[in-house]
Design brief:
Strand content: 35-45%
Number of strands: 4
Order of helices and strands: EEHEE
Largest sheet: 4 strands, antiparallel
Number of helices: 1
CATH architecture: 2-Layer Sandwich
CATH topology: Phosphorylase Kinase, domain 1
CATH class: Alpha Beta
Number of domains: 1
Length: about 80
C-alpha cells in the first residue's frame, strides 16, 4: 500500500496542506496545494473548459505535480498538486 487517505476540512483556493509521516521510523514530509479552477468562466463549451484546465495544469509550477482532480461544484473544480521531493 503506497497511499493513505486523510480527511481535511473544506479547502479554499491557494491553501496548503503539510503532512508529516513516519515510515519505519524515518520521517517524511509532503506538501500539497489546492487550486480552484473556475468552471463557470467565459467559455460555455465543455471542450473549451477542458482545454483551459489542461493548459493550467501543463503550465503549473514545475516544482509541483498534479495529484488529484476533485469533484466539480457549480462554480469550481478543485485541483490538488503535490510538491516534488
Amino acid at each position: 500500500m503506497s497511499e493513505i487517505c486523510i480527511q481535511v476540512p473544506q479547502m479554499d483556493e491557494h491553501k496548503f496542506i503539510e503532512v508529516e509521516v513516519k515510515v519505519n521510523g524515518e520521517k517524511k514530509r509532503y506538501n500539497y496545494r489546492v487550486e480552484l479552477f473556475d468552471w463557470n468562466g467565459q467559455f460555455s463549451d465543455a471542450e473549451d473548459r477542458i482545454q483551459r484546465m489542461r493548459a493550467m495544469i501543463d503550465n503549473y509550477d514545475s516544482n509541483w505535480q498534479l495529484f488529484q482532480i476533485g469533484a466539480p461544484t457549480e462554480k469550481h473544480i478543485p485541483i490538488m498538486f503535490r510538491q516534488k521531493i
